[in-house]
Amino acid sequence: MRFLLPLLASAALASTTHAQDVSARIDSALTALQKEGFSGVVRVEKDGAVLLEKGYGLADRSTGRAMTPATVVQIGSNTKDFTAVAVLQLKDRGLLALTDPISKYFPGAPADKKGITIQQLLDHSAGLPEYAGGDYDPATRQQIIDAMMKAPLRFTPGAKSLYSNPGFSLLAAIIEQLTGKTYDAYVRDAILAPLGLRKTGFLFPNFASDELAHGYFATGKDNGTMLSRAHAADGPYWNLRGNGGMLSTVEDMHAFYSALFEGERLLRAETRDLRFDPRQPVGLAGSDGIDFFLYERDPIAHTEIIIAANNPTVRPPRIRGAVAGILGLPNAEMDGPPEGREGGHPAPAPILSAVSELVAALNSADDTKIAAVIRDHFAVEPDAPSVAVRTERFKGLHERFGDFVVTSVEAFDSGPVDVHVSSKGGNATLKVQVDLKAPWKIHSIQLLAGGD
User: Would you list the domain boundaries of the chain?
Assistant: First the structure.
């Protein structure tokens, strides 16, 4: 028995030495990416021990302010996780049921939408469009509700899934209706305050400007901070509310997800497991094409990775891959087609022609050429943005990423056409919702930065 303590001490020392080696290797890999243009904050945990929590590059290039673990970053669509938790809390309190039709909360819902359930909004299976307008358009709550009630459904609710930001805005409207609080205030009072988190939210943390990371286009242009952009007096405008826009630190986000997955401080276990199963690996990410945020948890490998980046110069999968490879985790870039989708097949010639014209027009950055492609190839729909609005958005893409070079085009029977492109801002995927038969009209385009 007297040999037990030395043996245990030796094992602990070996473990510590190994952890230090892994930490140094991760730091070295990220430092190399910093030299290529990566700037952000990364937190890595393994077996309950923090291997790395460090900032790289600059949060504000004009002042030389460095990224640090305390830097406040955009979390993008990870805002939806707070919305989902809020909805599930209201379920636990008996204020709503996931089977409730939205007509219970929006009595003016038309016949084709009154049966949409809260669960379908959470699952992106309500048939609502991906977007209702620009993130910073001054849309009110009622305007978003009215727009969604008028918007043609993309499919019969429950038939399949299509990512929908305004679907989560409707959930935010329901949260405000049931609680009598703004979305920002409810999240603060019911989710953040019980956990002691003071650096997450939108307006209520009262962030100082020198706490926030600026976003930067691939061209180097300063995109400012989330709070420097147009917003309402009580939070983001409603194209963004409930689905994006929140700010946080990697430490606060670690604490939030730990409380969510590892206990019942936020939700009863049986309720949490309806959406956040702690037994399954999960990756939750958000991006506006400039800023990027990733939370990844693997309970089998006992790992947690959190990445925040404030420019698209280095592709997010490369940042994640640099960390995951050292931890021995599979590379997401090598995992094959998205879950539930078969491999793609060559796109029909009319689609290839339309894509070619669109990319050429984008690269020209010429209003007239872009508008002509929109008029020729985009479907005319009651809820669609105007030609002028779409033209400005496409010019914004060119400003962010520079010229696009199409590397491949894949068509999927069950989903959009994927147009893989490269640019000086990195690789990306344009997901083009298009008719797969004549007249081959384009309905919408979503850009995923860092796509393959």
Answer: 74-332, 345-449
Element (H, E) at 89: helix 79-92
First to last CA, the chain: 56
Give the residue among 241, 213, 239, 216 at the shortest CA–CA distance from 226: 213
- Domain 345-449: which topology? Nuclear Transport Factor 2; Chain: A, (3.10.450)
Contact between 313 and 401 under an 8 Å Cβ cutoff? The reply is no
Total residue length of the chain: 452
**Residue 339: partners with Cβ closer than 8 Å, 6 or more residues away:** none
- DSSP structure string for 198-262: -S-BSSTT---GGGBPPEE-TT--EEE-GGGS--BTTBS-TTTTTTS--EE-HHHHHHHHHHHHH
For 359, other C-beta atoms within 10 Å of its C-beta total: 18
The secondary structure element, H or E, covering residue 33 is helix 4-36
E strand map for 61-121:
65-66, 73-74
* Least confident piece of the model among 198-207, 288-297, 365-374, 383-392: 383-392
pLDDT at 452 over 70: no
State the sign of the Cα–Cα–Cα–Cα dihedral 6, 11, 14, 19: negative
The answer to whether the bond into 439 is cis (omega within 30° of 0) is yes
For the domain covering 74-332, report its CATH number: 3.40.710.10
Q: Which amino acid is at 381?
A: E
Confidence (pTM): 0.76
According to DSSP H, which parts of 328-386 are helical?
349-364, 367-377
Q: What residues have CB less than 8 Å from 148, skipping those under 6 apart?
A: 113, 128, 132, 166, 167, 169, 170
Secondary structure of 261-298 in HEC code, one letter for each residue: HHCCCCCCHHHHCCCCCCCCCEEEEEECCCCEEEEEEE
Residue 33 clears pLDDT 90, i.e. is over it: yes
